């Protein structure tokens, strides 16, 4: 089976099966798992903007995952999605950009390292990822993190944050519930590589 966003490639090899987007009910079901939902009218408006795309819904949910986000936060997310100044051609690329911009500076640098890993080996060992961050000098305490924690523990907190924001997915857990390995969506990896290139320039 071959997967591609380019329909012409599929036509060249035979039968093309088009993936359907989520309907409104399925979109809402996913959104409520990814974001803190209240009776804010903006949540339905934001959901409609996602066009039934699971990755878009998950990423927006990640921006709003914090407990009880303020009405101003919801309004800001909706305004940012509507903001053509993000320079994105599609709603998904707009939301990818929004997710990146919403990260703390330390997390942006750590996120940019995700693209270093070989795309043909999709599983990333959590311990190795944290060691890369430490070696690059990227692990410094974030607000709310115990100052006495080791760099390894702080690095795992960074990883937890990226997972909570749905930018990284858990692949495997240890018996005691710790993250053993993780993976990233191909478009997330592409964003990481792009942002890493921008930082170098």
Automatic annotation (TrEMBL):
Domain Disease resistance protein winged helix: 124-191
Record keyword ATP-binding present: yes
InterPro entries: Apaf_helical, Disease_R_plants, P-loop_NTPase, WH-like_DNA-bd_sf, WHD_DRP
Domain of life: Eukaryota
Pfam families for this protein: WHD_DRP (PF23559)
GO biological process, alphabetically ordered: defense response
Gene3D superfamilies in alphabetical order: Helical domain of apoptotic protease-activating factors (1.10.8.430), Winged helix-like DNA-binding domain superfamily/Winged helix DNA-binding domain (1.10.10.10)
Keyword Nucleotide-binding included in the entry's annotation: yes
Keywords: ATP-binding, Leucine-rich repeat, Nucleotide-binding
MF (Gene Ontology): ADP binding
Protein family: Belongs to the disease resistance NB-LRR family.
PANTHER family in alphabetical order: DISEASE RESISTANCE PROTEIN RP, DISEASE RESISTANCE PROTEIN RPM1
Protein name: Disease resistance protein winged helix domain-containing protein
Lineage: Eukaryota, Viridiplantae, Streptophyta, Embryophyta, Tracheophyta
